[in-house]
Design goal:
Biased composition (Basic and acidic residues): 56-67
InterPro entries: 26S_Proteasome_ATPase, AAA+_ATPase, ATPase_AAA_core, P-loop_NTPase
Family: Belongs to the AAA ATPase family.
Number of domains: 3
Protein name: SpoVK/Ycf46/Vps4 family AAA+-type ATPase
Structural class: alpha/beta
Helix content: 55-70%
Keywords: ATP-binding, Nucleotide-binding
Length: 401
Amino acid sequence: MDHFSIIQALCRAAMADASPALRKQIERLRDALAKDGDAKQSAALTSILTTADRTKELSPSRIERSKAQNPGEVLTRNTPVPVDRETAAALADIIFPADIQPTAPLFNATVSQAIETIIEEWANFEALSEIDIRPSKTCLIYGAPGTGKTRLALWIAQQLGLPVVLVKLDGLVSSFLGTTARNIGNLFTFANRHRCILLLDEFDAIAKVRDDPQEVGEIKRVVNALLQNLDVRRDIGFTIGITNHPKLLDTAVWRRFEVQLEIPKPDFEMRKAIAAHFMPPVKAPDIHLRLIAWFTEGSTGAEIESLVRTYKKATTVREEDKRGLLDTLRQFATLNAARVQSERRALLFDDSSNLFRAMRDDPILGFSMADIGEIAGKDKSTVSRQLGRSAKSGEGEVLNG
């Protein structure tokens, strides 16, 4: 069939919110292709139908209960989003559950448990309503850039089976300063009319301290409009705000959010888990994962993912061009100097004996001489001798001093 790739894309988009009649037509097309001998194209449509079924089965009880708590019209891919009156630019993006990765983000046990609590509240809305309690309807997620805040918000929506109305507020402020308050009103009106999660990204762009002398009167009016709209929406739907700069938020904004969830930078074990998560299909030794976790102290998940990409490229190029782990770390530290803790970076480019000693003596890393030797491409006796010579040299300097 000519242009089947376009037909395939249309079918995939349609199945995200398909009626029984629409599904029937896709099944007819699949069967017709199979009858005409186009087995490959027929199988592609079967795959689309199967994927749609699996997506629908992910959490049916949660979807139905969340609908009960979120009255309104159903968002579809054909629903027009509000636009700026002067420029006709869309004020939001719509992201559907089928387009969101179902894999849970990686956080420490405390954060993961808190997130599960939010989801369980919405999944058990009926039980809570019997004791006159409602799920939390506003959630502020804050933390350093790259810690997974936006991905977490989207995953929560995916778990609840709700589409996301994603708004990047920094774009509204910088591009449409004179009409920002009106645009915000239109966005909230749109979100309140539909069954969805309203996700306000770059929240600090608008929700700034109102008594900041550097801000013009327009921003102050925008903050007031935002507060009023948040107050109205809290009785209608679920709203999530995201910010990298919590200190910039007005205290009145903080009070509008029932849940205030901080996403910390990952600790050693989480950094190792993140490295392992992004490593496939490459199989990295455990000591490599541990060293990556140690090297990325103070880093975010996004920065660890970037280092893992560098590692994977270094281990899959031509044999004569392959780098050892230490050389790969030095390359990454050179190209990403601002993202690497200065102490770790200094050790990488210092005398190797100082790096070996730090690796040996760090209780979290827990490396043996054999581990260090494997990473450095030396046998453990060579590493031991190098450390011994370094120690004697240090003692001599102390005596001479």
